[in-house]
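ok so I'm stuck.
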Amino acid sequence: FQVPPAEGKSRFHDFPLPDSLMRAIQDQGFSYCTPIQAAVLGSTLRGHDAIGRAQTGTGKTAAFLVSTITQLLETPPPDERFMGEPRALIIAPTRELVMQIASDAEGLTKHCPLNVMTFVGGMDLDKQLKQLEQRYCDILVATPGRLLDFCNRGEVHLDLLEVLVLDEADRMLDMGFIPQVRQIIRQTPRKGDRQTLLFSATYPPSLAQLTGDLLRDPAQVKVERASADSPIEQRFYEIEPEQRFASVLRLLAANRPQPCIAFCHTRQQCQELADYLGAEGISAQALHGDMEQRERDQVLALFANQSCSVLTATDVAARGIDIAGVAAVINVELAADPAAHTHRIGRSGRAGQPGLALSLVAPRELKRLRPIEENHQGPLQWGEIEQLPERPEQPLIAPMRTLAVAGGRKDKLRPGDLLGALTGDAGLPGDAIGKISISDFQALVAIRREQAKQALQRLSDGKIKGRRFKVRLI
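replied:
not stuck anymore, here's the structure
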């Protein structure tokens, strides 16, 4: 059955949420629910399974996290014999998406006695196992491959699972993860004894078969658009294939969007475009599957903290990126299907801000426009690429640079320690310091470009919390 957005339930405080969770929601400045949040919570808080069909930027992550956290807070935790056995499992297709979900979960549980853990590839398996053995695991967020490794070794048991969430299910289908997901789910309580939530942007027949096997009488929630208050202006430009990179440069020169994501079809195209833009004086970084995980994490951090103006990315690599304030999306080559096109442009225009999507269309791609035009309200807006300037008048340089400090959570470093060292001993004004992100063994600090070298020198010569750390500019 179809569950419409819950009328009269547009605020989080209209739902029976625990006080500790409401405090975290209020800390993050959330008052009103998005349509999918209202609809999902209206069903899942009554114990129903649910299928959510929504595009990027609709607020679906908060929808399933708020529901899951509420469920866990309403049931007593297990005793010490079951330390490390998760009570809620969230499976997502990429490391980036897992880390984003886990970060959101930690924000929403900061006033709650719940622990969040992650299992992803590219990290030391034994270290992750040791972490599991040392504390309770209430919410586990994982990629299918790494979680299955743990399950097959007998290191993780899913007998106590109360909530199972499959996020980006269509992408897991595309990436060939569904057999692994089925193996994992066979180790969980049977449907009906657990609550199962599935979220997907599209709903192909093969996915419908999976949901029939895994969910019991699910409520179905479908939200077509993130918000009518978040318009995305689309412009299309017909080009010849050999003009593609030069045309991207023209779009950047005419619009100067910062930050911007340029979607490419192949890893090679992605890297070549980043190199081409870099040679033209534009701060550009590539994100694709041939990169080491450490490199991918660093590129995403640079983009998130405004140390990179343009991110060139493939569709698979960009899945799970959730960065606010993306000024524009450029389709370097038109997506092969309308759902992928919608996903791409949905990166721009979030949280009520207008977005901009610029698409380059070669003659052989014109046939891909028909479904896009059918989904578009009104005729497509076309521009003449030759009327745009060939190059930016001024280099498109990111406003920030990033300092990498060779110390992290394992060294007891906190954002306040770095902020204090920079504004105190280093003498930088507070507005020169941007986003600070800390992992286990490294901290990344965004500094205004014109003051980055000063910050590097001061931190290299000084101390943080009474200790010296190696510092470098990325």
